[in-house]
Amino acid sequence: MPFYQQRGKIPHKRHIQFRHQDNGALYAEELVGTQGFSGVSALVYHLHPPTIVTEKGKPYSVAPKIALEKHLSALSFKGFSLQPVDDYLDSRTTLFVNNNLHIGIAAPRQSMTDYFFKNADADEIIFVHRGSGTLKTMYGQLPFEYGDYLVIPRGTVYQLEFDQTDNRLLLLESFSPVRTPRRYRNEVGQLLEHSPFCERDFKTPQDLMTYDERGHFNILIKKQGMVYPYTYGTHPFDVVGWDGYHYPYAISIHDFEPLTGRIHMPPPIHQQFEGEGFVVCSFVPRLYDYHPDAIPAPYHHSNIDSDEILYYVDGDFMSRNNIQKGQFTLHPGGIPHGPHPGAVERSIGKKSTEEMAVMIDPFHPVMITEAAMALEVEDYYKSWLEEPLVG
Ligand SMILES: [Fe+2]
Fold it and tell me: H or E element: which one contains 39?
């Protein structure tokens, strides 16, 4: 995370004696980061060492089952056809996979109450399509609502508390740190004037709560496609203070300020995040191109070096016909794609759009899981036919 934060009590220098004022016990200092000792990090002060494991359960696999390892076809999937289930982890369903990232969805009905979760492999971006609640971590509480991207660095122990049972989440797991684009920042990391968001748009953990509890605390740890059930003897949220640059945060798609132009602007102007081998873009309601002869619909493009995955959130998506909320389209690198029949003419003269979508461009081809194929829209690849050419 790009700017310094501090919560609770911390000593005036790092790595010195820091004791409980009543009983004189030393707090347990922990350095938390995801890139050795050279990336961003936080120093965290626990009541108890974060190492008190009392039991280990039997690991089990959650590795996605691949249906299409290789393909060259425009595909589409109905995300909202995923049946809701009670448990958050049970509900997490991976759809697209490569070595840089996994993309999935979830429709959990219940809050996490009897366990905590930690993804030891991947930074997570959780886009909240439906529902609201609170992300609970040792750094504090992050309330979330429709439109929020929750960015959770790998290694963060968390719980999701939902306000209701109707929740729809888009999930991205990145095996490298998730960042906002470097070109939006100056040499000390401040967001520049042309960035579509600024520091004020980031929501950081609040209301640090310190749980001084002993007992049995179950943390399900995901690593290398397996879940390892661990039981700890002390509550994982036993932090009295922390500071640094490493913590979960939220930013809303509704706070993304679109950049517009006289003629059609390319997708990089919509960029929200990046990681190794992918970018994430936010398409939000905006004014259309204002050249007198402008064509607001995108031109055909042949993104030979990137797959393109669009997730439709809200509004009418002007370049596509028959697209529903929660639907994915996947346009693979290697063949061109473009607006659906009629979409170009339809767009001319339009002044604005209410469309909202999240686009994920993986730079290496993704494999398609069995779970995704169960949601497939049949024959999407033929959807550019105005009328059958044969037969
Ligand atoms: Fe595209």
Answer: none
pLDDT of residue 70: 96
Contacts of 37 (CB under 8 A, 6+ apart): 31
Distances (CA, A) of 170 to 1, 118, 124, 128, 312: 21, 18, 10, 7, 11
Residue 182's CB is within 10 A of a number of other CB atoms, namely 8
Nearest to 356 by CA among 105, 146, 131: 146
Residue 102 has pLDDT above 60, yes or no: yes
Contact 93, 105 (CB under 8 A): yes
- Which residue's entry shows tokens 């960035």? 195
Judging by DSSP bridges, how do beta strands 226-234 and 60-61 pair with one another?
A: antiparallel
pLDDT at 391: 43
- Tokens 């509900």: give the residue: 91
Distance in Å, CA 329 to ligand 1 centroid: 10
- Say how many Å lie between the CA of residue 94 and the centre of ligand 1: 22
CA of 308 to the centre of ligand 1 (A): 6
Beta bridge partners of 188: none
The mean pLDDT of 4-28, rounded to a whole number, is: 97
Q: How far apart are CA 271 and CA 358, in angstroms?
A: 10
Q: What is the pLDDT of residues 122-175, one digit of tens each?
A: 999 999 999 999 999 999 999 999 999 999 999 999 999 999 999 999 999 999
